[in-house]
């Protein structure tokens, strides 16, 4: 993964703007026209165009990947470019950021895009009663100032040289000011594709928006159709029979069947996707670090990589910072399966054994139920008796995750360490799925703020290494494995040589980046 330096983010100049103007270089080989049909998991009947609620691939691909835009975009090679922002610059302490917005952009209802749209769209995330995973990003902005119709200035509560990266978050989409409710109801954005129909949890159809500001360099299809297929077998069959052109999250157990089909190819990308088991540490018994440690030593990580991922990944070490991150602590001692240590930590908690419910569904990740059962079998030797509760796939993210004390989950990871930590581990943020609070993680929370403002890369590496160690030893999330993104595409569809590893399906931007062969 190509990385951009933090100092390189502080300013984007005119030279970079030539490439950034479209977000992608022109591809002579890309053909225009045709219809992309994708069978995607991660859909729910509660889905909407309100990006604050998005948590899985279907809506991320439909919204940020097709219908809406953000201020910035992470390219397939991991570097950052402007999307609705043309350029930006920061003060020396990285506390004040000025963004120059792209001119000539219109929403799908004809409204011109400008600074008011940016400010009102960001204010959505901190509105009273708002439940947004991007709330911690926007809360860090102490002032949003309109300097002109196409210029916005943000003042932060502390320096953050990663700030432009954060504005590429898939929750932070830009809606038309004064028309946000209408835009959420009807899917009105500035993206490459305009919504024609949308049935939550069923399908979305959109057509190429004429005279889009990205021109001919992106959005090569005339039409896209995203079909919700949450069942992995049904997704594979839809691709094999030609009903769809691409699918996400293939079942590794049936990968050989796909490989045997000459009309299909497998895409495998190494990124930061992680399969996890979060514990709500504000509830007993998970509020006891010794119980958490017993579970950390009671899971056989290599067995999961071998049997669940079938080798398509690597063991995790209970830190969400992965191999595609700049400050990944790959030299940190690996937690190993050790039932005797699990027993020891149970005794430290005053227990000889413990009975726990673990909620799981393959909606969390392919093989989640099997992984939970492997956890059940390995933990038993250490005195941990796990009852696997199979949960319904539909509604899993609204009814189980963040609500049940112990469950299966997955994260795509984030492009920067601070982005990942501030999204899921900062005390009080909406998606802190272990509810690890300040009282239990004071040193971690202190380092989070210090590292965020640190401009010395060597010092920042030391700080992030310590944070990863704290999570490994004390945190409330078990991360047994990092999983490669493995998806399948018909030979009727072509894609660039480099495929994004931030999210599934080329950073969920297949509609923007791919074309008919």
Summary of the model, kept short:
This protein is of the alpha+beta class.
Describe this entry's structure for a reader:
With 517 residues, the protein is α+β, with helices and mostly antiparallel strands. 29% of the residues lie in helices and 21% in strands. Strands 8-9-10-1-11-19-12 form a seven-stranded mixed sheet, with helices on both faces. α13 links the parallel β15 and β16. α10 (289-297) packs antiparallel against α12 and α16 (442-453) runs antiparallel to α17 (457-474). The radius of gyration is 22 Å and the shape is globular. Mean pLDDT is 93; it is low at 1-8 and 12-28.
Shape: globular
Mean pLDDT: 93
Strand content: 15-25%
Strand count: 21
What percent of residues adopt helix (DSSP H or I)? 25-40%
Amino- and carboxy-terminal Cα gap: 26 Å
Number of helices: 19
Strand order in space, largest sheet: 8-9-10-1-11-19-12
Over all CA atoms, what is the radius of gyration?
22 Å
Largest sheet: 7 strands, mixed
- As residue ranges, the low-confidence spans are 1-8, 12-28
In terms of structural class, how would the helical and strand content be classed? alpha+beta
């Amino acid at each position: 993964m190509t990385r951009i330096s933090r100092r390189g983010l502080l300013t984007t100049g005119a030279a970079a703007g030539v490439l950034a103007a479209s977000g992608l270089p022109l591809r002579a080989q890309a053909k225009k026209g045709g219809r992309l049909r994708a069978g995607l998991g991660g859909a729910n009947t509660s889905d909407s165009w309100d990006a604050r609620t998005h948590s899985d691939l279907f809506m991320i691909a439909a919204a940020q990947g097709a219908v809406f835009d953000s201020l910035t975009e992470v390219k397939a090679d991991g570097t950052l470019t402007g999307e609705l922002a043309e350029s930006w610059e920061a003060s020396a302490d990285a506390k004040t950021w000025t963004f120059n917005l792209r001119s000539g952009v219109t929403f799908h209802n004809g409204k011109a895009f400008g600074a008011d749209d940016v400010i009102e769209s960001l204010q959505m995330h901190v509105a009273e009663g708002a439940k947004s995973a991007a709330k911690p990003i926007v809360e860090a902005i102490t002032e949003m100032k309109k300097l002109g119709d196409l210029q916005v200035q943000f003042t932060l509560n502390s320096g953050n040289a990663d700030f432009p990266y954060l504005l590429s978050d898939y929750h932070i989409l830009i809606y038309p000011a004064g028309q946000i409710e209408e835009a959420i109801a009807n899917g009105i954005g500035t993206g490459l594709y305009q919504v024609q129909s949308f049935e939550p949890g069923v399908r979305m159809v959109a057509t190429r928006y004429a005279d889009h500001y990205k021109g001919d360099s992106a959005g090569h299809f005339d039409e896209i159709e995203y079909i919700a297929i949450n069942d992995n077998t049904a997704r594979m069959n839809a691709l094999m029979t030609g009903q769809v052109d691409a699918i996400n999250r293939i079942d590794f157990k049936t990968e050989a069947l796909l490989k045997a089909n000459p009309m299909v190819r497998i895409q495998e990308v190494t990124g930061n996707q992680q399969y996890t088991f979060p514990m709500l540490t504000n509830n007993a018994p998970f509020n006891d670090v010794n119980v958490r440690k017993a579970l950390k030593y009671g899971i056989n990580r290599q067995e999961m990589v071998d049997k669940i991922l079938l080798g398509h990944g690597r063991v995790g070490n209970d830190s969400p910072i992965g191999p595609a991150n700049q400050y990944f602590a790959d030299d940190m001692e690996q937690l190993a399966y050790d039932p005797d240590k699990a027993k020891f930590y149970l005794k430290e908690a005053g227990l000889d054994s413990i009975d726990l419910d673990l909620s799981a569904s393959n909606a969390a990740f392919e093989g989640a139920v099997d992984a939970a059962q492997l956890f059940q079998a390995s933990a038993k030797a250490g005195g941990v008796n796990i009852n696997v509760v199979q949960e319904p796939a539909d509604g899993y993210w609204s009814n189980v995750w963040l609500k049940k004390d112990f469950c299966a989950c997955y994260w795509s990871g984030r492009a920067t360490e601070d982005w990942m930590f501030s999204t899921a581990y900062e005390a009080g943020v909406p998606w802190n799925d272990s509810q690890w609070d300040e009282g239990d993680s004071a040193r971690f929370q202190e380092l989070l703020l210090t590292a965020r403002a640190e401009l010395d890369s060597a010092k920042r590496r030391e700080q992030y290494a310590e944070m990863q160690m704290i999570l490994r030893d004390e945190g409330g999330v078990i991360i047994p494995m990092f999983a490669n993104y493995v998806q399948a595409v018909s030979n009727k569809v072509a894609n660039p040589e480099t495929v994004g590893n931030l999210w599934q399906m080329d950073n969920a931007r297949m509609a923007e980046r791919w074309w008919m062969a």
